[in-house]
Amino acid sequence: MPVTHTGESEPMKKMFHTTARIGLAIGILCLAGASTGYLTMSSFRRHAATASGTVIDMVSYHNGGDLTYAPVVTYYDKKRKRHTYISHAYATPAAYTIGEGVYVFYNPQHPEEAQLVPFNTHTGLMVLLVVGLLAGGMGIGLLYYRRSASHPQNWLLPNGRSVAVEFIKMKK
Known about the structure:
By secondary structure, the protein is of the alpha+beta class. It has two domains: 1-46 and 122-158; 49-106. The protein contains two helices and five strands. The protein has a five-stranded antiparallel β-sheet. A hairpin with a 2-residue loop joins strand 1 and strand 2. Helix 1 runs antiparallel to helix 2 (123-159). The longest helix is centred in the N-terminal third of the chain and has 38 residues, at 10-47. It is elongated and about 95 Å long. The two termini are 33 Å apart. InterPro entries: DUF3592 (IPR021994). It holds the Pfam family DUF3592. This is DUF3592 domain-containing protein. Residues 52-119 form the DUF3592 domain.
């Protein structure tokens, strides 16, 4: 197996570089997803009206053997018109109970467009952000390490001066 002047085999060098690039790509994708999700949610909520609502039912969904639940909520807009909203956030166990009061963000121009205001609003976005920072940091760190570790040898080979020495003795 050919070995480079840094002592690494070519397959190991390629695997190291590929791992760094994959980590960097995952980091970039997660950070892009987190920022897009945050901006979308923030934009909607900045222009939204709020209302108090009540969970009137739970919708169930079989997710690979697990039964997950999403709340069905009724709320009244500022014109006192009643609306029903089925959340897209399914959970096991159910995060809400029938009869529970909730807060709802809704679009004043299209009141049927709504979102619930859970206490953990940004949890998914925070997970994406942390994964993105970790994976991206790992990718950047590996690429930087790879470059800095091989830099002296890369410079010395074409620019260094050969010195003849005679080995005399080695102490323990």
